Amino acid sequence: MWEWTRSGFRKTCFERHRINRSGDRQLNRALHTITLIRMRLDPTTKTYVARRMGEGKTSRDAQRCLKRAICCQLFKILERSDRTPTISSQPLDAI
After folding, report:
1. What kind and span of H or E run contains 73?
2. Considering only CA atoms, which of 18, 10, 30 is closest in space to residue 74?
3. Most exposed of 9, 16, 79, 95 (fewest Cβ within 10 Å)?
4. Residues 29-83: pLDDT tens digits?
5. In 3-state terms, what secondary structure has residue 63?
6. HEC string of 13-57?
7. Which residue, 39, 88, 47, is CA-closest to 67?
8. Predicted TM-score (pTM) above 0.85
């Protein structure tokens, strides 16, 4: 089984790798909207895109890398929420 690693994520951004276009269309559309709004309004994202374009990438390639970075951020959030402890059925006095 392939393990998700940060170095593997960075490596794929140097290659031309695309997110699965045939997957969940609503999710892809939401991700596209998030990237457009962040590219327009978020200063951190603006510097990220400027750095990518400074590396010689086109605007579309920079956006593709940004989508992968956002996917990584969302994956971490979902992974953390999966680890939250479940509510115990025991009363507080018993703990």
Report:
1. helix 59-82
2. 30
3. 95
4. 999 999 999 999 999 999 999 999 999 999 999 999 999 999 889 888 888 887 7
5. helix
6. HHCCCCCCCCCCHHHHHHHHHHHHHHHHHCHHHHHHHHHHHHCCC
7. 39
8. no
